[in-house]
Amino acid sequence: MEEGVGGEEYLFKIVVIGDSAVGKSNLLSRFARDEFDLHSKATIGVEFQTQVVDIDGKEVKAQVWDTAGQERFRAVTSAYYRGAVGALIVYDISRRTTFESIKRWLDELNTHCDTTTARMLVGNKSDLENIRDVSVEEGKRLAEEEGMFFIETSALDSTNVKEAFQIVIRAIYNNSRRKVL
Ligand code: GDP
Ligand code: MG
């Protein structure tokens, strides 16, 4: 989703996907409002937040969508993915099953979005080092195999959250510029 390509205005739709309780909603609220919720509930219904990011002095609007609980029922709709040019695919580094689900999320993304969609594999909850269940190397390897960026984050202590979004937004921005030129 781009507005005024060639002009000065950019609006990019980014989806956040991954198993229930990996921290998707908290990553989004940390990014958009710098808030963290210790007891966040999986509310049902699609929600998004719009955040303005500065990329090389250009105002870029990121419209970041949250599954808002749909994923618990394996019922993320095609409308959710429509027009997405970026995706954060999130697992919880302290729960291996959420890492094992990444392939399924990638398959789903690939049925709705083409390969130009910028992808970031996100290992969230890096603050839980003492109960780590997925190594950094495993995350890196999977990301490399599947052509994704990779980062570990903590929505709890804010580590790398802005960076995760910014890297994806910059990649989308560079892609869209290439298309224009
Ligand atoms: P979602 O279902 O993927 O949207 O996950 P939520 O954002 O609702 O988070 C699920 C649970 O994990 C909540 O209890 C959060 O407080 C917790 N959580 C989210 N991010 C982190 C994190 O980075 N570190 C830790 N320790 N807990 C987190
Ligand atoms: Mg949620």
UniProtKB/TrEMBL annotation:
Molecular-function GO terms, alphabetical: GTP binding; GTPase activity
GO cellular component, one term: endomembrane system
InterPro entries in UniProt: P-loop_NTPase (IPR027417), Rab_GTPases_membrane_traffic (IPR050209), Small_GTP-bd (IPR005225), Small_GTPase (IPR001806)
Topology relative to the membrane: Lipid-anchor
Keywords associated with the record: GTP-binding, Lipoprotein, Membrane, Nucleotide-binding, Prenylation
Subcellular localization: Endomembrane system
Family: Belongs to the small GTPase superfamily. Rab family.
The protein's name in its UniProt record: Uncharacterized protein
Organism, scientific name: Lactuca saligna (Willowleaf lettuce)
